[in-house]
Amino acid sequence: MEAKSTSTEELPVVVIGAGPIGLAAAAHLLDQGLEPLILEAESQVGASVREWGHIKLFSPWRYNIDAASAAMLESTGWEPPRPTALPTGAELVQDYLEPLAALPELAGRIRTDHRVLAISRGGRDKTHVQARAGQPFVLRVAHASAVTELHARAVIDASGTWGSPNPLGAAGLPALGEEDPAVSERLLGSLPDVLGAEAQRLAGRHTLVVGSGHSAINTLLNLAALKRQDHATTITWAIRGDSAERVYGGGDADQLPARGALGQRLRRLVEEGEITLLTGAEIHALAVTESQAQAPDDDAAAPSVLEVDFADGRRITVEYLAAATGFRPQLELLRELRLELDPAVESPRRLASLIDPEFHSCGTVEAHGADVLAHPEEGFFLAGMKSYGRAPTFLLATGYEQVRSIAAHLAGADASAQNLNLPETGVCSGVSAPDPAEPQSCGAPAPATGEAQSCGAPELAAVGRASDGTRAGVSTGVLHGRHG
Ligand SMILES: Cc1cc2nc3c(=O)[nH]c(=O)nc-3n(C[C@H](O)[C@H](O)[C@H](O)COP(=O)(O)OP(=O)(O)OC[C@H]3O[C@@H](n4cnc5c(N)ncnc54)[C@H](O)[C@@H]3O)c2cc1C
Questions:
Q1: What is the number of other CB atoms lying within 10 angstroms of the CB of residue 386?
Q2: Which tens digit of pLDDT belongs to each residue from 136-188?
Q3: How far apart are CA 189 and CA 47, in angstroms?
Q4: Domain 3-163+327-410 has CATH 3.50.50.60
Q5: What's the 49 CA to ligand 1 centre distance in angstroms?
Q6: Angle between helix 67-74 and helix 20-31 axes, rounded to 10 deg
């Protein structure tokens, strides 16, 4: 991999991230006779999926396994899980990603605890065009408290978006005080394991849930279940819109009964006063302050609370805050590359019109591969969740086709995109895109509270862009999950 003495063609294709798409990319590269090297920031493969391991996927196993990876696994006697079963994130890791990463073909080509900090082109900063394409890529990598450089003939960035959640401020900026370490300790992330790992911390406490996607719904319903065990548990729910009607869904008329039932349960909990709903609630500032409540004994320090200031002057105090506000791609490490990103979606420009959340709340995505995902920086690709930028509708099956096409392109084979077989989770109808005022995160018909939560729900409304670029209602047949 040391570029100085090696020709670019002999260098590996570096894949950033050992998530489902990064591992699949490596399998496809091997299939094409190319040499992959996966750099994974964390100590285990599937690191992001492990963090939402308690969530049940909405797409069954048959859509969650990459074909090239399955072929490699099956040659060792591995048996795929029941195709119609819905795995949890933990099962996806245990029954698929771990066996895949342990295959001899892959195991020696994965470097865990290697975090990519930056990528450039050897000897060429972004402004230099001459002979750029022939130069190897240079990757700055942090490993074991040292920073080293690796070289690559091509780079596939499959590092996901889980590590960069959207901030709480309505303008897309952090709320004032949000990055204060004392405040950060009170933030639970998008999908806290309310009835598992977090139960002890949250029981009897006051938690604010922010957001109107299914992450928020899951968390609210599970907090309500926790409240049944410990009545002192207090739940507040903040949404930016003026009404939660859209979140409650269509009830009995909902085309997805599980989703309709969830919404109705949430409505009941709000109407019964178990959950306090704050509408029109844009978070302005956060601070940890001393509680006005009496300390348990005179000598004890007064307990601290999280003070939440809203833009309209309202203020509440809580103990924890679950921010289900979606995710965005980390682009700083790509700064020296010549990218062509959509200014709003932050996905490859040509992909954006297929997935822009302003216009696509479900909707099938056209099969797309290397040509749609290409950038002016030849040999560099975004794939997987990160390729969708801020759009929350990415599916594993889409990413597996992306990396199949990219690997074929890099090998000089036919890279044309093939038809996608995506999970059929309902029928798109209606014409309204999601309320742009609302942060969306995750979205799935979830099972009964207390079971593994489900995320990535199909959305019923579909809005598309007409050929003249104007907004038009469409019904596109297959729904995508949302997991902002
Ligand atoms: C709660 C939830 C439920 C979902 N349910 C479904 C579903 O039912 N069906 C479906 O098809 N899709 C679903 N998705 C969407 C999507 O399939 C998943 O997000 C999936 O994990 C994306 O895979 P990925 O490989 O692109 O990214 P990730 O799984 O996020 O993997 C990225 C990897 O890159 C590593 N990494 C990050 N930064 C660096 C760096 N700088 N250097 C090196 N490594 C780095 C991370 O540690 C991680 O291991 C769901 C998503 C969420 C969040």
A1: 28
A2: 999 999 999 999 999 999 999 999 999 999 999 988 999 999 999 999 999 99
A3: 15
A4: yes
A5: 6
A6: 70
Of 38, 57, 373, the one to substitute when testing ligand 1's pocket (max ligand atoms within 8 A of C-beta) is 57
Residue 453 is classified by DSSP as: E
* Angle between the N-to-C axes of helices 67-74 and 396-410, in degrees from 0 to 180, rounded to the nearest 10: 90
Decide: 389 in ligand 1 pocket, CB within 6 A. Answer: no
For residue 378, pLDDT over 90 is answered with yes
Residues written for the chain: 484
Between 168 and 393, residue with greater pLDDT: 168
Residue boundaries of the structural domains of the chain: 3-163+327-410, 181-323
First to last CA, the chain: 36
| Pocket of ligand 1 contains residue 19 by CB under 6 Å | yes
In the prediction, which pLDDT does 30 show? 98
What is the spatial order of strands in the sheet that 13-16 belongs to? 110-111, 36-39, 13-16, 154-157, 380-382
Residue 125 CB neighbours (<10 A): 8
Select from 376, 374, 342, 334 the least CA-distant residue to 360. 342
Domains 3-163+327-410 and 181-323 share a fold: yes
- For atom 10 of ligand 1, the residue with the nearest CA is 395
Please state, in angstroms and rounded to a whole number, the distance separating the CA atoms of residues 287 and 390.
Answer: 27
- pLDDT value at residue 441: 46
Residue nearest to atom 19 of ligand 1 (CA): 385
Q: Is the dihedral of CA 86, 89, 90, 92 positive or negative?
A: positive
CA 28, CA 23: separation in Å to the nearest integer?
Answer: 9
Helix (H) or strand (E) holding 473: strand 471-473
Provide the percentage of residues in the chain whose pLDDT is more than 90.
Answer: 65
Architecture of domain 181-323: 3-Layer(bba) Sandwich (3.50)
Using alpha carbons, select from 480, 467, 256 the residue that is nearest to residue 363: 480
What DSSP character marks residue 388? G
The percent helix, strand, coil of the chain (3-state, each to 5) is 25, 20, 50
Nearest to residue 461, comparing CAs of 259, 215, 162?
A: 259
Helix segments in 161-271, DSSP class H: 181-184, 199-202, 214-229, 245-248, 257-271
